[in-house]
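Bench notes, afternoon.
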Amino acid sequence: MILDANSAPLPSRIDADVCIVGAGPAGIALARSWLNTPVNVCLVEGGGHRPESLSQSLYEGAAVGDGRFDPVRSRLRALGGSTHVWGGGCIPLSNGDLSRRTWVPNSGWPLAYEALQPFYERARETFGIGHHALADGSFLQQDGQETHAVVSDLLEHRTFVRSPVFFGEAFRDELAQARNVTLLLHANVTSLDAGPEATHVESLTIRSLSGQTTRLVARQYVLACGGIENARLLLLSNDVAPEGLGNRHGLVGRYFMDHPTCRLGTLQGGVPERVTRPYDRTGGRGPTPSYPELCLSDAARAHYGLLNARVRPFAVEGAVPAGVRALRELRRAFRKPTHDEAMTLDGQLESAQPAVDASRTDRSITALGKAVATAGLHSGQVARAWYRKRHGKLPVAAERVDVVGYFEQAPNPDSRIRLGDERDALGQRKVVVDWRLTDLDWHTYRMSATIFGSELAKASAGRFTPDAWLADDARSDAPIHGTAHHMGTTRMASSAREGVVDLDARVHGVANLHVAGSSVFPTGGWAFPTFTIVAMSLRLAEHLHVLL
């Protein structure tokens, strides 16, 4: 059953066995584990079916510290969460990502890879990629995939799979039809109401922008509203615990991480196709294609004391002939757009503002007719581009190759989410994202540029020129920004003095409150987090099944 607070009255009190706050991949995966069982589930989402400017405005906040960060454009408040615009990339963390590394302070999960592996296996079905076999930190490369030109002890290839599943679309009907699930839309949780001594949650308060207020009472509560909002809601719940719920040791909101990204330099000359074609994502076989990623090897990271990292070489074309440009316009008009974390190199979710859709193509008869005529008039240009592609070259010669890096961030207690003084439309204090990088992060960027640049230049017979900012100590000018992968703010640890949740994702000291999503990640590797988010949610669901 779906109840929309913007279009229907809500009861003054709702009772459930389990309440899940947030209907992104974590919350939906959890709710689905109880479909059509005796367990009464209430799934609470602050947005609607699709992104909307008014709901999205509740994510506004301030940003300080390092890098470029926008709290409102880096996440989506809607059914399905940020998977409305995700790239579909699925890959597990590796055993090395989960292990403690002596050169990375505060690293190491309290879980081994073996504890997560069975849930990774199950998560494949959720993402519709069950026929792809798993390996440590990778999927197995499929037979027939292209041999990679880059061969080095310092680098390795890992394989990710692109899922076709967009959670809000894929699972909306089954959630609506399940007899034991109530999905609330436009229902914003404003506080968790704790009992005496803040050792358990008695209820939570829901408010809508249309003016409704509801109290929800459950046996178990799960926060699954994202790496920023999970921490914000705990900090806002301060009626009984002045410092915020679960925050006795001041750790809620700390250790905020993203996957920083930046251009490291450029390749020129040589044969650029040798290093661009293997990592091109415009093709792919079937509905769930797999692609390689070029990464630092475990040996390189240990030897040089680096965080995890990967790069993608992007061919930057010279002038595109008119005939080729017209043919591409025709293809865009009739092809379903694909999502990729590099659709915009700044990594921000440009589609988060629903009034803006930069990917929209003019499909009018006039525009299509003009494109057909232009392609026909310049058929020789089209033929040359086809010939080049047929013989393993780029259809249009590259002016240069941009080498873009994507990095693990060092867990840093000074990088944090806190509450500011400004308030949103519901009267709640907005967040301040204080994103801070460490010396280890900067060392990783500079050393990675040297390693990747040298090996790519060798493979392409070209020359690598690092970007000037890498040699500059003025970090404020560095073009670092996030990729909307918010992690670490309620980190998992065996001790309440080291983390916010325990090995079962239960908030330390709060008997019936758990947290799902990447906010529990102690470290994040470089891997796209959504696959691990769902695996961890399935693990949490198994634990909660015992309690319920």
